[in-house]
Amino acid sequence: MVFKRRDRRPIWQLVLDFLYPRGGWARAFEYVKHRVRRLPDTPEKISRGIWAGVFVCFTPLFGLHFVCAAIIAKLMRGNILAAIMATFFGNPLTFPPIGYLSIKLGSWLLDLPQGREAHLGQKFADASYDLGNNVRALFSAKKIDWHGMQVFYDDVFFPYLIGGIIPGVVCATACYYLSVPLISAYQNRRRKRLRAKLDQLRRPQDGDGV
User: Which candidate, 88, 75, 68, 76, places its Cα nearest to that of 48?
Assistant: First the structure.
């Protein structure tokens, strides 16, 4: 069976659209906000989902944010779809400051020597090389070496994981308390508009019966 890619745009265009959507991040944010507000659930459950989605954006578990957000939302009895959509909070514009703050704070909390969080690019590259090399070593005579991964874990991943907890909780909680009244007000306005439309539909029928 041959699978064909429906989107005929070049790969570089797809990557560019991910880094910067064609309508801009402001338009993309408005779309996500609109979709979240229209979810058929209570404001509190939707906001708990938002809490989960925003919080996981402060973790270094890239590639697992959707899964982690869904699990946390489930545990909190929040809206899972809202949690997945709220991971949009983490994007190429917000990840650099989130990562920098989390690593710095984590290094301070763990009392690591100053400078261990430096040369992040090289440490990412070394960890990636180790991962690829060790996979190839399973099928060849290459020697398995986890030194680059160990340095990456000690200097980047673990400080990021620890340092992201406090700002993640603070930011997610702020988003929760901001979103509850906003979603509640939006749902009330929407109910009033629906009632008004229903009343308009009933009036001609009531008039015909007179």
Answer: 76
